[in-house]
TrEMBL record:
<feature type="binding site">
    <location>
        <position position="165"/>
    </location>
    <ligand>
        <name>(6S)-NADPHX</name>
    </ligand>
</feature>
<dbReference type="GO" id="GO:0052856">
    <property type="term" value="F:NAD(P)HX epimerase activity"/>
</dbReference>
<comment type="function">
    <text>Bifunctional enzyme that catalyzes the epimerization of the S- and R-forms of NAD(P)HX and the dehydration of the S-form of NAD(P)HX at the expense of ADP, which is converted to AMP. This allows the repair of both epimers of NAD(P)HX, a damaged form of NAD(P)H that is a result of enzymatic or heat-dependent hydration.</text>
</comment>
<dbReference type="InterPro" id="IPR030677">
    <property type="entry name" value="Nnr"/>
</dbReference>
<dbReference type="GO" id="GO:0046872">
    <property type="term" value="F:metal ion binding"/>
</dbReference>
<comment type="subunit">
    <text>Homotetramer.</text>
</comment>
<comment type="similarity">
    <text>Belongs to the NnrD/CARKD family.</text>
</comment>
<dbReference type="GO" id="GO:0110051">
    <property type="term" value="P:metabolite repair"/>
</dbReference>
<feature type="binding site">
    <location>
        <position position="132"/>
    </location>
    <ligand>
        <name>K(+)</name>
    </ligand>
</feature>
<dbReference type="InterPro" id="IPR017953">
    <property type="entry name" value="Carbohydrate_kinase_pred_CS"/>
</dbReference>
<feature type="domain" description="YjeF C-terminal">
    <location>
        <begin position="231"/>
        <end position="499"/>
    </location>
</feature>
<feature type="domain" description="YjeF N-terminal">
    <location>
        <begin position="20"/>
        <end position="222"/>
    </location>
</feature>
<keyword id="KW-0067">ATP-binding</keyword>
<feature type="binding site">
    <location>
        <begin position="412"/>
        <end position="416"/>
    </location>
    <ligand>
        <name>AMP</name>
    </ligand>
</feature>
<keyword id="KW-0511">Multifunctional enzyme</keyword>
<feature type="binding site">
    <location>
        <position position="323"/>
    </location>
    <ligand>
        <name>(6S)-NADPHX</name>
    </ligand>
</feature>
<feature type="binding site">
    <location>
        <position position="375"/>
    </location>
    <ligand>
        <name>(6S)-NADPHX</name>
    </ligand>
</feature>
Length: 499
């Protein structure tokens, strides 16, 4: 029996689909195996995940296309048949003979008494589980109607789906749906994790991501240079114990600027998040009509509505944007803050409304130590493109944002991306429950606190995003995603940062 190792804890490096295609054969040869052996290992890995997902399922529907992805599907079908399952193999062109290794796998299926049929909803309705091996990583244009109709039918059904390497219809590099895309319950990806599986629509479409290096991982990593890194909380050692002989000034003085009239909550969330993340002292500069709302219930926050220049001189780093607004008061606070940070090389986190003001005044400022935290809508305004453009190519636009503003850009969303102009990281933590008012303000406070405690811009961005996402996951695991509010994250962040 073939042996292969499934990795449920994902490796940290990301590789483009073309890197995998170019390097998997040389890597396999270094391990004294051929491409058909990899195909056999891939099919076994997929069947193993099918058994884990639905161990008592009896009827398998294997959807196959025309390339090597189809070959993986045929091997999966053979594995399922030999295990006593009832297996239907359906293709868009069932009479078509495949070539190469995929053709060899197809012939093995036929020699074993298997048939290749046209897809029908009748067969789909009989299936306990679908294996999606329709379209692989080579897709680079919108899919044809005959494939789209199959994908629509599968997505409309309640049948669980395991996708082979990448959900059919998904661009493996960008995570963009090419017109239609399978919504999988599990995706088993091979040799290298493709970036499109980790962010945006791709993260949604692939469901649970499982990785298998097919036994050639070491050689492959020696041949291919990763295009990004996946971030996991286990990669960080934390901040370590504090010195016994220390005081509040040891852990930084953070100024949070925002909280215009009617939006006091945003800057309050950022300030308290900073305290819960270990900042020694946190001062809030807010509109005079927001002072009571900010200070009530959290006396540890220092609050002022005057002397912004003095507050900036006092601070070792700054967060600006939560609840800032875009009126005259906001514009004056923004201009004063960025001029100071530029003149004194002071680290600054720019979030929310401050990003919109930055877009209007971008040519006026160049700050050496800066973190930008846009969501897709804010990034679209910063770059002069549409929101759909950003979501279709999240890696590209995160890099463009970092380059245009010479900053570390945190592009928020499913699979938050961090880019510093030369390197890219993707956070694997986070969940839809965090799509709630104030969650981004909490992230800004965390980032500010880490900067206040002496972390570099890049380390604060990477660790802060990971802390934030993992805290949300811990809350969701304990209480569920629905009903999560931003302030729920405080205790979870505090627990994580002390581990």
């Amino acid at each position: 029996m073939l042996k292969t190792q499934i990795t449920t804890s994902l490796p940290y490096k990301l590789y483009r689909a073309d890197q995998v295609r170019e390097n998997e054969a040389p890597a396999a040869s270094q391990h004294d195996c051929g491409m058909f052996t990899l195909m056999q290992r891939a099919g076994q890995a997929v069947f193993h995940q099918c058994q884990l997902l639905l161990p008592n399922s009896d009827v398998y529907l294997i959807l196959v296309g025309q390339g090597n992805n189809a070959g993986d599907g045929y091997i999966t079908a053979l594995q399922a048949k030999s295990a006593g399952k009832q297996v239907f193999v359906c293709a868009v062109q069932p009479e078509r003979d495949l070539l190469g290794d995929a053709g060899r796998a197809q012939q093995l299926w036929i020699n074993a008494g298997g048939k290749v049929e046209a897809f029908s909803t009748e067969i789909l309705n009989r299936a306990d589980l679908v294996v999606d091996a329709l379209l692989g990583t080579g897709i680079n244009s919108y899919i044809r109607n005959e494939f789209a109709s199959v994908i629509d039918a599968v997505n409309a059904s309640n049948v669980p789906v395991v996708s082979v390497d990448v959900p059919s219809g998904l661009d493996a590099n960008t995570g963009q749906s090419m017109g239609r895309c399978i919504e999988a319950d599990v995706t088993v990806t091979f040799v290298g994790i493709k970036p499109g599986l980790t962010t945006g629509a791709g993260k949604q479409s692939c469901g649970t991501l499982v990785f298998d290096d097919l036994g050639i991982g070491k050689a492959f990593m020696n041949l291919a240079r990763p295009c990004g890194t996946l971030l996991d909380i286990s990669q960080f050692k934390g901040l370590g114990p504090r010195e016994v002989h220390s005081h509040k000034g040891t852990y930084g003085r953070l100024l949070c600027v925002g909280g215009n009239r009617g939006t006091a909550g945003a800057i309050r969330l950022a300030g308290e998040a900073a305290l819960r993340s270990g900042a020694g002292m946190v001062k809030i500069y807010a509109h005079e009509l927001s002072l009571i709302q900010v200070s009530a219930g959290r006396p540890e926050l220092m609050v002022t509505n005057s002397g912004l220049e003095d507050a900036l001189k006092w601070a070792t780093c700054v967060v600006i944007g939560p609840g800032l607004g875009q009126d005259e008061w906001a514009e004056e606070a923004f201009s004063t803050t960025l001029k100071h940070c530029q003149a004194h090389s002071k680290p600054v986190v720019i979030d929310a409304d401050a990003l919109n003001l930055l877009n209007k005044q971008s040519v006026a400022y160049t700050i050496s130590d800066c973190i930008l935290t846009p969501h897709a809508g804010e990034a679209s305004r910063l770059l002069g493109v549409t929101v759909d453009d950003v979501e279709a190519e999240r890696f590209n636009y995160a890099r463009q944002c970092a380059q245009r503003y010479h900053a570390t850009c945190i592009l928020k969303g499913a699979g938050t991306i961090i880019d510093n102009e030369t390197h890219t990281w993707v956070c694997r933590h986070g969940n839809p429950g965090m799509a709630t008012a104030g969650s981004g303000d909490v992230l800004s406070g965390i980032l500010g606190a880490l900067l206040a405690q002496g972390l570099s811009i890049d380390m604060a961005a990477k660790y802060g995003v990971t802390l934030h996402g993992k805290a949300g996951d811990n809350i969701a695991e304990k209480f569920g995603q629905r009903g999560m509010i931003a302030s729920d994250l405080f205790d979870a962040v505090r627990a994580l940062i002390n581990q």
